Amino acid sequence: xxxxxxxxxxxxxxxxxxxxxxxxxxxxxxxxxxxxxxxxxxxxxxxxxxxxxxxxxxxxxxxxxxxxxxxxxxxxxxxxxxxxxxxxxxxxxxxxxxxxxxxxxxxxxxxxxxxxxxxxxxxxxx
Length: 126
Fold this sequence. Notes:
alpha+beta
């Protein structure tokens, strides 16, 4: 009878240690999955950031081509994943509001530029 109890205690010990190791492995897998999800979200945010910058470039090109270019309605560039919200002139300073959208992450940016006869000067990009 005593040998059976020793075997049972060893069996219970092996089962409990195995379940602890399995729980620890499961928690580590969740942690790694969460880390990769954060990395992917940061990558999407960066793609949206640069998409918004592409729309700022498009608006600056439009201003360089047409000095009187103003837009109060949204101009969407599907191939660039961005939209120009507005491009207005305030006291000689062109204010451009845009957003970039990539995988349902939206990044808004605003740029200020001054347009001269022969060149364009970017004052700030926020």
